[in-house]
């Protein structure tokens, strides 16, 4: 007899399973376009130089110890993070309507925010884009939401945003529903609304009394400019919205495994901030009590020092420029080979990912025949492309489609 006999085998998590398969593959030209993690031109993981500098400084700082952080994390970290997101002169900050909570990377920030919304505000319905990052649904359902719904986002025919479908679905959403919005560099499509479209989206969210929950996993990574990539969130703030925003430092600081993130909370009434903070404190206390310090100290060290802040911006530029260059190279190669279809979407899309338009069978063919690991949805991580493998990848796509 075992208590566990009835446990069913769960489905594998596609992106992690793919990485395992990739690692076990002995084919010399194999390419991993699955996982969303930055790689250098040599295809190697990259620790940002500014992170190395910060880590050395922290290692030499004998005043630091291993005592617990407060439940809501390192105060300097969360306030600098919220400032980075909203902009220094944001009305929400000057009027004390915004604060941050240090969380376990972007996923943890989504989870803490969702727990609060489900358990304290008794929200049940949430919407995510079709398609979206593979974890939104699980995080929100695990946090206590009951009703997972999709809004239309991607139009496979035009390989662009289905803004009419998007707005119509928001229009039909019940009052109070939580709407997950990708702040920039939409994962997996690489396709963001224009500023005009964001204004339309904001207007429906306001009219229908919906709650915007931004997911900002790629600030700086999309355009190379932190302010530009925060435009949508800042626009909503200037329009007087109350909102949540989950921020991740996995990509823009390369702190993937340090689990460093922040939940920014923007409210209308500063006098209600202490009560909300106290409830989020209980939410966190009941989950993991308090967060780890290392990543938060690295980020605070950099964001509080002007010179290091500028170096970080340069590091972000290095990463985003390499990705933009790889988009160009891939498109050029595909067009040079006369690969069936049009390829402008590769360079029109933004951020870490590209939705190639390859269907499930074609994507599986890429894995099986060419040892190029990519998701079944046809999503590729641009970071896995390098000057030395881009031709091979283009040739393989060409063979798959011809
Ligand atoms: N949201 C989106 C859209 C993402 O792509 C990711 C990372 N893949 C995350 C959130 C969270 O990542 P992390 O928890 O590593 O910060």
**Percent of residues in β-strands:** 5-15%
Q: Spatial order of the strands in the main sheet? A: 2-10-9-8-7-3-4
| Oligomerization status of the protein chains | single chain
Helical coverage, percent range:
40-55%
Series of secondary-structure elements, N-terminal to C-terminal: HEHHHEHEHEEEHEHEHHEEHHHHEHEEH
Class derived from helix and strand content: alpha/beta
How would you state the average pLDDT, rounded?
96
How would you describe this structure to a colleague?
- Its EC number is 2.6.1.1, 2.6.1.3.
- By secondary structure, the chain is an alpha/beta fold.
- 44% of the residues lie in helices and 14% in strands.
- The protein is built from 16 helices and 13 strands.
- Strand 3, helix 6 and strand 4 form a beta-alpha-beta unit.
- The chain is globular and about 65 Å long.
- The mean pLDDT is 96.
- Residues 36, 105-107, 133, 182, 187, 215, 217, 248, 250, 261 line the site of 4'-deoxy-4'-aminopyridoxal-5'-phosphate (PMP).
